[in-house]
Amino acid sequence: MNPDKNTLQAFKSSILFFTDDPDRIDPQGAFTYHEEGLLLVEQGYVKEVGPFSELAQTLPPEVEITDYTGKLIIPGFVDTHIHYPQTDIIASYGKQLLEWLEKCAFPIEGKFADPDYAGEVADFFLQELLKNGTTTAQVMCTVHQQSAEILFQKSLEKNLRLITGKTLMDCNAPEYLLDDASKGFDASLELIEKWHGLGRLSYAVTPRFAITSTESQLEKTGDLLTSRMGLYLHTHLSENRDEVGMIKTLFPWSRDYLDVYERYALVGPGTTLAHSIHLTQQETERIALSEAAISFCPSSNLFIGSGLFNLEQATSTGIAVGIGTDVGGGTSFSMLKTLAEGYKVLQLQGQSLSALKAFYLATLGGAKALGLDNKIGTLLPGREADFTVLNFNATPLIERRVSMSETLEERLFILMMLGDERSISSTHIMGTLS
C-alpha cells in the first residue's frame, strides 16, 4: 500500500550513503554510516537521517516504523547506460560489437515498430530495474519515436527518474531502422517538448554512435541540444577497435573518434560517452576539459570482447565516471554483478576497485556523472528518497561469508562479489515501496 505523501515515514536499518569520492579524500570521511540508524522521509524527500537511539525519540507516536533491522539501506543504484530494446537478446552467443549489432541488436530493435511489443518489453524492463535496486537509469531506445514515448509514459506512472530519448540513425544500419536527418530532428523535438522535465523525466538527444549518423544528422543533433535547457547527450565512444577504425574511414578529416562529436558541439556538461575504452591520452584530457562523463560498462565490455576500461586514466584527469549495466551486451540488470565484473576488469590492468569506491560509483558517482547529485545518489536531507534495502543473508553462501567478516568494507565487498537480485530486499521510489 502506498503511504500518503504528506505523512512522515520512518525506516529503521543500518544506513550507508556517500558524500564524496573515497579515492579523492580520506575514505572514512567520504561516507556516512549508521549501524543502527533511522531514515525519515516526508513528501518523498529525505527529512533526516541519524542514529536510531536519537531520532526515534523525536517521532510523533502515530508514526509507524518500517523495520529493516539486519539489512542495509543505501541510495538507489544509478545505471548510466542501458538499452531497454535489447532486453530480449541478453546473453546472445559469440559475437563482437559490429557483428553483434548486425546479427543480434538490429533485428530485435526492428520489432519496436510494434507498440504492443514495445509496451510489454518496457513493463518488463522497468520491473527488472526495480527488482535489482536501480532507481535512476539513462536508457537507449530505438529509432522509433514510440519506443521513447512508451518508456517515458510507463516511467512517469512509476515516478521513476529516467533519462531517455529516441535513437538517431540515418546510415550504416538496416533500412527498417533508419530515418533521415530532418525526420529524426522533428520527432526528437516533439518528444522533448512533451516529456523533458515532466515529473522526474529528462530527455537525452541520442545519436547511437557516429558510424550510424551522417554529418547532416550530427549537425542537426547539435541543433537539438540547444533547443531546451538541461538536455542530455547520450552516445557511444571507442567501444571496439574495429569501430574506431571505421570512424577513420567515414570521417577522414577527424583527428580521432572524439573529434567527430566535438565538431558538432556534442561534447560538454550533460554528455555521457558510454564505454570509452580505446581512448588516446589527448581524448581523455579533452573529455575532462569538456566536463562530459563516461559510463563504465564492464559486463558488456567483457562479454562482447571489446576491451578493458582504464578507470585510473579517466578519474586521474577528473572525468566523472558512472556505472552502466549496458543490457543487452551486458549480461545482468544487477548493479552488484556489474560491480563484480568491474573489479575483475581493473584487476587485469593492475588497478583496484575497493568496495567503497564501487558503491560510490553505483550511487553518488553515477548521480554526479548525470549532474543529478543535488537530487539523488545520497541520503542527505532534501534529496529525493530513492533507496534500496540490501540483504546480507540473501543466500546461504553470502550469509556464511558475511558471518566471518569484521568490517563494513568486507561485508560490502562480499555482497558486491557474490550478490545479485536476491540481495535486494526492497526498492523505494521517493519513499514508496515499488
Task: Summarize the helices and strands and which ones pair or pack.
Elements: E1 8-18, E2 31-42, E3 45-51, H1 52-55, E4 65-75, E5 77-83, H2 97-110, H3 115-131, E6 134-140, H4 145-158, E7 161-165, E8 167-168, H5 181-195, E9 201-207, H6 215-225, E10 232-237, H7 241-250, H8 257-263, E11 271-275, H9 281-290, E12 293-296, H10 298-303, H11 311-316, E13 320-323, H12 335-347, H13 355-369, E14 387-391, H14 396-403, H15 408-418, E15 424-429, E16 432-433
Structure description:
With 434 residues, the chain is α/β, with parallel strands linked by helices. Helices cover 37% and strands 23% of the residues. It contains 15 helices and 16 strands. It has helices at residues 52-55, 97-110, 115-131, 145-158, 181-195, 215-225, 241-250, 257-263, 281-290, 298-303, 311-316, 335-347, 355-369, 396-403, 408-418; strands at residues 8-18, 31-42, 45-51, 65-75, 77-83, 134-140, 161-165, 167-168, 201-207, 232-237, 271-275, 293-296, 320-323, 387-391, 424-429, 432-433. Strands 5, 6, 7, 8, 9, 10, 11, 12 and 13 form a nine-stranded parallel sheet that branches. The chain has a seven-stranded mixed sheet with strand order 3-2-1-4-14-15-16. Helix 4 links the parallel strand 6 and strand 7. 55% of the residues are buried. The mean pLDDT is 96.
